[in-house]
Structure formats: C-alpha cells, structure tokens
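Closing statement on the guanosine-5'-diphosphate sub-project.
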Amino acid sequence: MKIKSGFVTIIGKPNVGKSTLMNVLLKENLSIITNKPQTTRKRILGILDEENFQIIFLDTPGILKPEYLLQEKLLHFISTSINDADILIIMINLNEFESQKKIFEEEIFTKIFSDKKKTKLLVINKIDLGNEAKLKNAIKYLEDLKYFHSIIPISATENYNIDSLLDFIFEFLPEHPKYYPEDQLTDEPEKFFVAEKIREKVFELYKDEIPYSVEIEIDQFLERENRKDFISASIIVERDSQKPIILGKKGSAIKKLGELSRKSIEEFLMREVFLELFVKVKPNWRKDENMLKNFGYTN
Ligand code: GDP
Ligand code: MG
C-alpha cells in the first residue's frame, strides 16, 4: 500500500477560523478558540492518522505587523511553520473579504507565493455568514491572482465542505512514510495543553487587555496513585494593577476561572484533576527577551 504523509500549515489573519478548522479536521479540541484575535501564541501541531495517510497540521498565530517583542516571536513561529509545510492552507474570511484581500500584497505573502514548490490551497471560511454573490465575487478575484492550486469555500463551524478540503489535501500530499506513531495526536506534552486550556478560559472570563497580558505557567503536575492528578498553575500578569482584576471580589473571579479550567482540563485529559491557581506579577514579560525565552518563545 502506498502511504502519503506530509505537513499542512494553516496561515491567515487573526480570527479567520484557523484553530477551529484544525480542531474540526482532527475532531479534537486541541487548539484554543475564542472570539478574540491573537489567541493562538505558538504553533500547535495536530496529527490526523488514517490507514493510508498521515496529515500533520500546523496551526499558527494570526499574521500581524509586529508591535512588540512577543509578536515578533509569533512571526517567527509562522515563518518556520511555513518552511516546514508541504501544503499551505491560506485562510481568509468571507465576510471580511474586502479588507483581507490586502494580505496578498504583504511581504510575507509575496514571499510565499514566489515559492513555486509549495502547494497552496486557498480556503474561504465562514461562508455561512455571507451570500452567494459575495462568494462568487471573492472566488473570481482569487482565481485571477493565479496563486492557488485550488480555492475551497468552507464553514468550519457548520462542518461544511470539510471533506472536500480533505480530498484536496490528500491529492497533493507527497508519498512518504508516516512521520509519527499512529496513536500520537500532537507533539507537545500534556502540560502544554493544560496551560492552554487555562489561557482559553482567561480569554472567556476577562476583558480588554487582560487576556493578552496573561501567560500561564504550570508549576506542578503530579500524577498520584489512587488520587486525582495534582496541578498547580500560576497566572502571570504584567502589572500589579492586574492582580486584583484576576482575583475578583473576594477571589470570586479566580474561583470561577479555576472551576471552568478544571472542567476543560478534565475533558481534555479524560481524567479528574485537582487544580490550584495563583497570580504572579512579572513586570512587562511581553517585552522581555529572557522571560519570553522562559515561556518557550524561542528564536
Ligand atoms: P483563529 O484566530 O484564526 O484561530 O480563529 P478561531 O478558530 O479562534 O475562530 C475565531 C472565531 O470565529 C471564533 O469565535 C469561531 O467560533 C468563529 N468561527 C470559526 N469558523 C467559523 C465559521 O465557519 N463560521 C462562523 N460563523 N464562525 C466561525
Ligand atoms: Mg487560533
């Protein structure tokens, strides 16, 4: 039997639905999804394994012009993920097409398009929010660019046309032995996803700049015999003034955060855990080279 196997990187502006698509393709909630932009911070790798093929998806942070050091690091994750790809999925969002088509003039994209070797699939997401005329216009415009091997309209949340996207990926996938063992879903340890689940709940519960200022550190993750796993995590904020916001009145906000995070972690790990949360201030961590390194944003 011929085996096909390869890396598929999903790129696009913040909030177009990259993480949603990856989760739908994998049928797992691996990558965090929120209605706010810039929630995916590192590249998330997810493996779809079938008998005769293996697709390794790389979900990336949204492409933005870097304004602070953290965002520069994010761009680095994006460009290495692009280099690793056999197939690139460039995702845009139908209901913001007019503003999003400008990405095809940006430097990062013109670089990608000059690389003739890579297969480029253009995915138009959120077609459930648009109409037929809008979609036809968008497709016409994109076809005229002549950059893409195929243009595929989908709705990630409605699971519309996902199978045909998979067919296209399969068609362009190189013949290659499987890269990962068949039962492996991702390359990060459980600890990483536990931190991501907490970060996702921070995005749900707190407003404005708070979620963007937060990083999660897992201080302890102990598996215990005949007892629930013990997890202790720190919510790192940038300023003293953010600490009482995280805590809330009489600790009510952090209590809620703990409950929601624990449930989401248990769902992901498929076992019960005991979760303890603390708040710590690390001034300006988003701009500090050493601290970013400690949090795993390496260059
Ligand atoms: P990312 O920043 O590109 O990773 O985007 P996310 O996957 O986090 O999704 C951003 C928001 O768009 C979330 O609120 C999703 O539920 C929503 N979304 C994603 N795909 C669709 C879709 O096909 N239709 C609609 N209506 N919303 C979607
Ligand atoms: Mg994302």
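The mean pLDDT is 88. With this model delivered, the sub-project is considered complete and its resources will be redirected to Aim 3.
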